[in-house]
Amino acid sequence: MNLVVNYIWGDKYTFSLPHQLFLESLSKIDCFKLVIVYGMSDENVNKLREIYNHVEIIEKPDFHYTSSYVIYKTIERFRKQCEYVLFTDSYDVIFQSDPFEYISKYDNEIFLTSPGFKVHEQWPDRNWQEYFNKSVGVPLDFNEDKVLNGGIIAGKIDAILNFYAFVASNLNRNGCHIVDQTVFLYFNQLMKDRGTVKVFDTRLDNFIYHCQNEYFFNREEKPNVIDGKIYTQSGELYCIWHQWDDIGYVAELDDNGQVYIK
Known about the structure:
Layout: E1 3-9, H1 17-26, E2 32-38, H2 42-49, E3 54-57, H3 67-75, E4 84-88, E5 93-95, H4 99-103, E6 110-114, H5 123-136, E7 149-156, H6 157-171, H7 180-191, E8 197-201, E9 208-210, H8 211-216, E10 224-226, E11 229-231, E12 240-242, E13 251-253, E14 259-261
Parallel strand pairs: 1-2, 1-4, 2-3, 6-8, 9-12
Antiparallel strand pairs: 4-7, 5-12, 6-7, 10-11, 13-14
């Protein structure tokens, strides 16, 4: 089987319209659905149990109890039953086709995603890199690397478990809280010559459209919206749409309960 994993803190956005749109699109994916929750009301937990195959309730995480470690410990029990696992954000993601069918075409073991621009082109990522290098003494230069997004991570279960173990062990090195996306860059550099990791680029691939690209750089490079779905400019359907609510797109449920984009 394949596994989709989500992580939700609290009630504030749970079952808001963006969350409902995500859940509706998720319902079309044939997979085992798992959600990790913290600080949520019993009412909402029970509603999620009607949608997900498993709801994992955790205690309040402390500084060293990172989300990456929580994800690792939760999905580890599915190691023998699961082939692929996909972690996604829950509020700004819409599935347009089956992501497992998409990634299974590749021989790689881990799939990361990028909005397409480089670290040196965006100040938060530049600052995170500098802080990472000073905190852990890593003599690597990420400036020409593509920014990696933390909202969509996929791959074969064993490789993903190793990935999350690596990330969790590096997030709090020397008592410094490090942004996970910078650790992704560190991991990708270490693995770049092994063929283990593939990075899907919003500008080049149709696996995912990150609106982060459009928000920061290329407002003229909009996707095509056709019959309520988004496509590349060459007419290929994007598998996943991410961060759609950041820049004014409208998504809603139509009269048939289907996600419709305009």
